[in-house]
Amino acid sequence: MTAWIVGVGVGLVVAGFAADRLALWMESKGWIYWRRSERCGSASLGILETIYQPSMVYVFEEETRQLTEAEQDASGEDHPRPPEF
Q1: Residue by residue, what is the 3-state secondary structure of 23-85?
Q2: Taking the mean position of all CA atoms in its chain, how far away is CA 47?
């Protein structure tokens, strides 16, 4: 009986390792986000993060705005910007 439990435990560890390697391979193909890709801060916990850390939403929006402005400046496009308060 003990050997059976050990066998099942080893099998679960091997299956978990294989699933992790498969997910890393899929991530390298760009199909999923797993461990090595940076994720958006607000996408990691979703609604819980917006409830318990509303400042994170502001930080994410500000970073997005700055990236958008940098891309617009680099491309030379002339988009009207809303007034900042």
Answers
A1: HHHHHHCCCCCCCCCCCCHHHHHCHHHHHHCHHHHHHHHHHHHHHHHHHHHHHCCCCCCCCCC
A2: 15
Q: Which two tokens stand for residue 27?
A: 């991530």
- Token pair 């699933």 in the structure block, residue: 19
pTM of the model: 0.42
Q: What is the pLDDT along the chain (85 residues), one digit of tens a residue?
A: 799 999 999 999 999 999 999 998 988 888 888 776 555 554 555 677 667 777 767 777 888 888 888 777 666 666 566 666 6
Contact 44, 35 (CB under 8 A): no
As a whole number of angstroms, the distance between CA 12 and CA 40 comes to: 31
Cα gap 62→69, rounded to integer Å:
11
8 Å CB contact between 41 and 33: no
